[in-house]
Amino acid sequence: MEEFIVRGFAATRLDDIAKRAGVAKGTIYLHFKDKESMFEELVRTVIVPVVARLNALPPPTGSVRDLIETFAGNFLKEVIGTRRGDLVRLIVAEGPRFPAVADFYYREVVSRGMAGMRALIELGIARGEIRERDLAHYPQILVAPAMIAVIWQSLFARHAPLDAQDMLRVHLDLIFGERRTT
Description:
Layout: H1 2-11, H2 14-21, H3 25-31, H4 35-46, H5 48-55, H6 64-80, H7 83-94, H8 99-126, H9 139-155, H10 164-176
């Protein structure tokens, strides 16, 4: 992961990965057919489990907003300020030049995350927690703060730190209505 993050997908060489791992380059080929398959396995190991937790959320006994806040809070903690966030930024930066990598990421991560978010949105609509029915067609709106936080962290945090948790709260207030404090 470190080689991909430091060098980017294009510039990472299997020779460099083997050297960092302290193995011969041939050893890598015992487990991976090429750099792309190695990167795919990295994504499966590092990012897919975070998104899989969305689809493994317990049956909602509380509000849909509570479920989304829990998932989003964990996402922010596990991705934004970690090497996982660097991996997501790498996909955003290099995906257009490597469509096969972007397609893989879409299949393994994005589509699963969107399906989970859509299911939560539909539940929120059915329960009357979400009034805007068309939100179910655009689950991207629900996850927008997380993507903004990932990008902001790498580009602008040193100039203007972002409180991603508070931004998420404001965003959810816009969708669900302001949370009442008791």
